[in-house]
């Protein structure tokens, strides 16, 4: 499946749940900043530079204590690549990291004026350099902690910190160069992307 279909799939899944169940559907738009991280390997290493991120979340609030969430997050970044095999493929390359994550969030009371929450996520991380290297998709897990301050029963201000971790048995890779996969960079350590986020939540319907 193309990574471009993940967002559509998540929307369909949550919208389908909402059509069969009585619950609250809400959408959140957000922006923030992701901290720099470095990953190492036998034939190269990659620094994922810090930079702003943005995205959205579609949530089905099953109860006042739990919601099911589909999140899309995109970070515009620069990959600083050290390729031990092909020196000419080293350097700074513009690109992006995209997360397509499905998960759950829990809170003592999502309807409270101030609602602390935490959640876990599973999905895919897509590393997309703009040149030399091809896009690569990795399995990812994530966690988040935050608080929602409700202005009224429809709108809330979201403050959150999240940790996204692309993990796979062979580690983290950033594509293959024009000379084939032998010129690519495969790293053996996992990335840990810590970010800080603020956003606006809008409830589309209520329980």
Fold and architecture overview:
With 207 residues, the chain is mostly beta strands. It is built from one helix and twelve strands. An eight-stranded antiparallel β-barrel has the order 1-4-5-6-7-8-9-12. It has a two-stranded antiparallel sheet with strand order 10-11. Strand 2 and strand 3 form a beta hairpin. It starts with 5 loop residues before the first helix and ends with a strand.
The arrangement of helices and strands along the chain is HEEEEEEEEEEEE
**CATH architecture assignment:** Beta Barrel
Whole-number total of structural domains: 1
3D shape: elongated
Rg measurement, Å: 18 Å
Mean pLDDT, all residues: 82
Report the strand count: 12
Largest sheet strand order: 1-4-5-6-7-8-9-12
Poorly predicted parts: none
Number of helices: 1
